UniProtKB/TrEMBL annotation:
GO biological process: synapse organization
GO CC terms of this entry: neuron projection membrane
Superkingdom assignment: Eukaryota
Record protein name field: Ig-like domain-containing protein
Domain Ig-like span(s) in chain numbering: 1-68, 72-166
Signal peptide coordinates: none
SMART domains: IG
Amino acid sequence: VSWIRHSDSAILSVDTLLFTKSHRMKVFHPSGADEWILSVNPVEISDAGMYECQVASTPHTSHFMAVNVIEPRTSILGTQELFIEAGSTINLTCVIHTGGQSMRSSHIYWNYNGQIITHNRHRGGTIVIDKRDQEILTSLIISHAGPSDSGKYTCDPASSYAQSVTVHVTKGDRIFSNFVLGQ
């Protein structure tokens, strides 16, 4: 059994012997099984393309697989710096473009100054998650914002790149900052 990548006509493996220098590719053949598994981990955008599993038999047998790789993207709506009047509501919305791939909402975190915000945050706050066909929207809502709510908020999905916004809570012409050094 051989694995072939058609984008560059590379023979990736014959039986369990690898012919690629990539540490990301492995071939598994469970003892006594009829399965030959090509594993690519972690997957990269360049791994997209046509792959062939060839079986040296008479007659020759092949199975072709098209591999599509979708890169999730993350963005926070609005600007990277947000000024909020003390007593107002902070409403941050993060959009994770999944390209239709499944993603567990339990793997999406909001961080405040590098610390994970939980649903039972000491001063309150609500996390809302809305799953759609091609994206997931998650909002962090903090009512009655005060000086201690100033800082860096990060939307951090496990399968995509984190994005951040800096929130400044103002009172009249005063701006309160609440940053942790070294973050």
